[in-house]
Amino acid sequence: MVKDTLIAAREAARQLNLMEPRQIDNLLLHLADNTVSRASEILAANRQDLDRMDSNDPKYDRLLLDADRIKGIADGIRSVAALPSPLGLTLAQWTQPNGMRISKVSVPFGVIGVIYEARPNVTLDVAALCLKSGSAVVLKGGSDAQQSNEAIVNIIADTLAECGVPTSAASLLPPSHDATAEMLDATGFIDLIIPRGGRSLIDFVRSRSRVPVIETGAGVCSCYFHSSGDIDKGRGIIFNAKTRRVSVCNALDALLIDRSRLASLPTLVMPLAGKNVTIYADPEAYSALDGKYPLLKHATADDRGREYMDYKMAVETVADIDEALAYIAQYSSRHSESIIADDQAACQRFTREVDAACVYTNLPTSFTDGGQFGFGAEIGISTQKLHARGPMGLREITTYKYIIEGDGQIRNS
């Protein structure tokens, strides 16, 4: 069954490659309309998934869909439709001494496989981006969101059929381990696999896949409050980075603070108490917060480099920017890091030396998002360095080929 799905996806990719950009855009606009008009189907299926999950599970918020979120997803699809096509762009062009003309042109990958966990919004985001970039998509969601994903893929399939596009251009595999194994072995059928989820999922896919992989997802994000940091800015940045949505990969996990600014720590973190954020503090930070912050615990070695995905955060005291940079170098997942500082030299050094996909000055890590970067939506946040890094939009899920034109020249050596 899985092999038949992959064969059909490969054929659909060939047909997508023949479509004009305006046809794809019209398809996406139709998909956005269908998503809104059939929202009740999605919400009913989503309720079945939610009823099987503990509401205290950090994944619950990722799984949850409501009318506002569905509208936001549909708006994201419309934003993708409004973007210029990433295909057929001449990335470089030159002529050799023998008159041979060489052009480097953007083209679709072909078939993209995406493996993800309890985030049904990914189903629509990824389908829109892949279709816009000319690729068929094979989706492999987690069992936690299976009912939601099936309802969404039914709407996508109906939309494709209404627009005269093969329904196999976007397909959903069963939520079984066997289906995952076949997907990871699908050389010749799938051109690229993108895992979206926690560290265990990403490590599993990377170690098992015979198909090329772009790693995305795991985010251990830190914010460093420098000795020159502004308290008002810092308080807002830390609160937003930690509490906007705790279950996403750009949420703040560790606050680093210069020892000289420990007196400011209670003021910086106090808004977090209103969201019941538990702070795991090192000895110096604990002393600064003891009796002044209600949800306080002693940090252990396990709290360093930990992705909480919950209303929890570590606080680490550092002597200066040297110690902050050393801490980030050791514990970062290379996703997103931020500095709060009015000292421009410190900001410049931080952005130069921190090895991460996204490095912020006086901003929260919550901005690491394709929509916030103007990409319309994202297929994931790449934490690796080959091909794509950071939020991956349309251009990041295309590849290129060389087109060479001549007039009968032959090679003599």
In short:
This protein has 14 helices and 16 strands. It has helices at residues 2-16, 21-37, 39-51, 59-63, 67-82, 121-132, 146-162, 177-184, 199-208, 231-243, 265-273, 283-289, 321-331, 344-353; strands at residues 90-95, 101-108, 111-116, 136-140, 170-172, 192-196, 221-225, 252-258, 278-281, 296-298, 312-318, 336-340, 358-361, 381-382, 390-391, 398-405. The termini are far apart.
Keywords:
alpha/beta; 14 helices; four-stranded parallel sheet; 16 strands; 413 residues; seven-stranded parallel sheet
Q: Which outline best applies?
A: globular
Q: What topology, given as strand order, has the largest sheet? A: 10-9-11-8-7-12-13
Radius of gyration using CA atoms only: 23 Å
Number of strands: 16
Task: Calculate the mean pLDDT score and round it.
Answer: 94
The level of helicity is: 25-40%
Number of helices, where a helix is a run of at least 4 consecutive DSSP H or I residues: 14
Low-confidence stretches: none
What is the secondary structure topology, with strand pairs?
Elements: H1 2-16, H2 21-37, H3 39-51, H4 59-63, H5 67-82, E1 90-95, E2 101-108, E3 111-116, H6 121-132, E4 136-140, H7 146-162, E5 170-172, H8 177-184, E6 192-196, H9 199-208, E7 221-225, H10 231-243, E8 252-258, H11 265-273, E9 278-281, H12 283-289, E10 296-298, E11 312-318, H13 321-331, E12 336-340, H14 344-353, E13 358-361, E14 381-382, E15 390-391, E16 398-405
Parallel strand pairs: 3-4, 3-6, 4-5, 7-8, 7-12, 8-11, 9-10, 9-11, 12-13
Antiparallel strand pairs: 1-2, 2-16, 14-15
